[in-house]
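Q: Hi! Curious about what RidA family protein looks like structurally. Here's the sequence.
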Amino acid sequence: MTATRRNPGDLYDSLAYGFSHAVESAPGRLLHCAGQVAWDKDYNVVGEGDLAAQARQALANLRAVLAEAGAGPEHIVRIRTYVVDHTPEKLGLVVPALADFWGDVTPAANTWIGVQALALPEFLIEIEATAALP
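A: Let's find out. The predicted structure is below.
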């Protein structure tokens, strides 16, 4: 299974914002990950009221889901980032968590979506992903 990131040189530099414009994957198995939020194993909200902390926890949860399937961030072909009451300033709180999550991996395609609310009022962010399994 291969996943090739596509970032045309004649488009803006999406990598600076933590995502690729597109990801091409070869036929194979796909893992559709549910949206991950800032819950720990015991249903405690990690970082209540703190968007950056919740982003880190949601991404840690996503990493655990991927690992269970024998995958990692390098296998992700698309993520969607849902942020409650989004404003442009909130990018600065979440992008560092995304950068840490991706590490040396070229980021996958990401769509950032501002929403009014998530499943529980304590949740400020939810991140879902699709991965091409190795």
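A: A fun detail: The helical segments are 51-68, 91-102.
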